[in-house]
Design brief:
Layout (H helix, E strand, L loop, with lengths): L1 H19 L2 H5 L2 H20 L3 H5 L4 H21 L2 E4 L6 H12 L2 H16 L12 H20 L1 H4 L6 H12 L6 H6 L4 H22 L4 E4 L8 E2 L2 E2 L5 H20 L4 H4 L5
Antiparallel strand pairs: 1-2, 3-4
Helix pairs in contact: 1-3, 3-7, 5-6, 5-13, 7-12, 7-13, 8-10, 10-13, 12-13
Keywords: Membrane, Transmembrane, Transmembrane helix
């Protein structure tokens, strides 16, 4: 309960700062706001499900902040190709300033997504979603090869193929994780009948995405979208069809984190997401 209260207080205070445009206080509110959200979600998970990702990982939880930084810089690189989002600042800043501040802010992405998703998983775990699905090795091989083709198409036709930004990475990561024997790979989990996991990731990331877009709306710095063909009917700055990318992004986050944590922290992300408290 203390964790939940701390998360609520930090989130509400930083939310106010983010939207108040009070100089530096607002400019640097993103990181503490999302730390507040992460604490809030983990506290809520403790209260509602008796466990949380933070409790299960303990100090290893800090790895999620570290591995989040290069992951989102990858998507920033992809955005340099498709030009789907752009940042607005209260005043001009240097490239070094931007890179440092952005890296600190990007560090909250993975822990926010996974903390929310494990709460959803715990709430859905009693549902009957345990149907085994066989995935042939040839399918994985084709998927892996397709990832390179998709990235090639992105470079050639960015305005027409921009949704592939949220599809290509999972086609690369999952066959790789499966081939390396990572037990937490989504392919392995689906073969074992754990369909609750991808569903929870989709819902959890959509919830997280809603708050990303909500808190961004009146903040400065902020981001805006220029998405070809589907830039209509916005919820906050995001076109409504853009929210369809969030569930796919959740799969990418999990697959990426499962692969990295397996080797650098000896953490089995599937075990952390298990129904055992």
């Amino acid at each position: 309960m203390q964790l939940l209260i701390l998360g609520i207080v930090l989130t509400v205070v930083c939310w106010y700062f983010a939207w108040s445009h009070i100089g530096l206080v607002s400019e640097y509110s993103f990181f503490p706001l999302w730390v507040g959200y992460i604490l809030l979600v983990n506290g809520l998970s403790e209260v509602m499900a008796g466990t949380s990702l933070l409790r299960r990982m303990r100090w290893s939880f800090l790895w999620l902040f570290i591995i989040s930084i290069p992951m989102w810089w990858f998507f920033e690189y992809m955005n340099s190709i498709v030009q789907n989002w752009h940042y607005l600042f209260a005043h001009p800043i240097s490239i070094l300033h931007y890179e440092i501040q952005a890296s600190i802010d990007f560090s909250t992405v993975v822990p926010a997504v996974l903390s929310t998703s494990i709460l959803v998983f715990q709430l859905l775990r009693k549902r009957s979603l345990n149907t085994r699905v066989a995935i042939p090795g040839t399918t994985l091989l084709i998927a892996f090869g397709s990832a390179f083709i998709l990235f090639w198409l992105l470079n050639l036709f960015p305005s027409e193929t921009f949704p592939l930004v949220w599809i290509g990475p999972i086609l690369f990561l999952e066959p790789l994780a499966y081939a390396l024997g990572v037990r937490a790979s989504l392919v392995h989990q689906i073969e074992q009948g754990n369909l609750t996991l991808p569903l929870s990731l989709g819902i959890g990331t959509l919830i997280t995405g809603f708050w990303w877009e909500c808190w961004n709306f009146y903040s400065l710095p902020k981001w805006i979208y220029t998405i070809p063909y589907v830039g209509f009917l916005k919820i906050f700055e995001m076109p409504i069809l853009g929210y369809l990318g969030y569930p796919f992004f959740g799969l990418i986050v999990f697959s990426y984190a499962a692969l990295i944590l397996n080797f650098i922290a000896k953490q089995d992300l599937a075990k952390l997401f298990s129904s055992q408290s």
